Amino acid sequence: MLNTKLDWREIDSLIMLLNKQGITYLWGNGSATNEDSKDVTPTQLIQRLAACNYPLVEHASISLFILHPEFAPAIIEALKLSPDDVAENIAVMTLATLYLQQWWFFRLTTSSGKLPDFPETPFASLWEERHLPPPDDGYGMTGLLASQDYQQHRYGLPLNFLDDWQNQINHLFAQEEAHTRKISNEIAENLVQLSRL
Questions:
Q1: Stretch 148-160: mean pLDDT, rounded?
Q2: Could you write out the three-class secondary structure of 41-100?
Q3: CB-based burial label for 159 (10 Å; 0-12, 13-18, 19+)
Q4: Residue 144 and residue 146: Cα distance in Å, rounded?
Q5: What is the CA radius of gyration of the chain?
Q6: How far apart are alpha carbons 127 and 119 in whole angstroms?
Q7: What are 102-138's pLDDT values in tens digits?
Q8: CA distances (Å), 152 to each of 99, 129, 135, in order?
Q9: Per-residue pLDDT tens digits for 168-184
């Protein structure tokens, strides 16, 4: 991440791929072509995002995972197939997604019109191996703070990862709230029940 020369064409290509997946709040510089973003599997997209070294685009994995919980098997595959540093970036983005989904559960529901359902169970080993709290501890905030400490220790710098991750959610809210979505009575009832817990 630090002192790394950025490949702007790759970054632009990743932004094009994210746009195709419904993440429209990022804008590229126009250096990539449609050929650069053609025939990319979800696993490859996840790996490329984790390896791009540009936090604004790398951290868009959070929005990608929230919008596409069906990518969970691709995340697991990417974790297995990637070099250690890339796999670690994927793991951190997956954990950040789980913690943010917990923290912003109600607003994610109202902004998208559906309950967020990025799965926790397949990724339990990620927080256990890193001695981080589960997503439901402190409604996700405990995990977010612990993940930031983990990342600061990993890089040896007091960088503000939490704000970078929250920035993605803020952009996702703005994008999704621009659409008027009606919440079904069933979802509204689920939210009422959850608020009583």
A1: 95
A2: CHHHHHHHHHHCCCHHHHCCHHHHHHHCHHHHHHHHHHHHHCCHHHHHHHHHHHHHHHHH
A3: middle
A4: 5
A5: 17
A6: 14
A7: 999 999 999 988 899 999 999 999 999 999 999 999 9
A8: 17, 17, 20
A9: 999 999 999 887 666 67
3-state secondary structure 110-150: HHHCCCCCCCCHHHHHHHHHCCCCCCCHHHHHHHHHHHHHH
| Contact assessment for residue 89 and residue 51, using Cβ atoms and an 8 Å cutoff | yes
User: How far apart are alpha carbons 88 and 154 in whole angstroms?
Assistant: 10
The pair of structure tokens assigned to 93 is 């983005």
Which of 138, 155, 167, 187 has the alpha carbon at shortest distance from 59? Answer: 167
b (16+ CB within 10 A) / e for 2-41: eeeeeeeebbbbbbbbbeeeebebbebeeebeeeebeebe
Measured from the Cβ of residue 46, the count of other Cβ atoms closer than 10 Å reads 28
pLDDT at 33: 80
Model pTM score: 0.90
- Interior CA angle at 197 toward 186 and 65, to 5°? 65
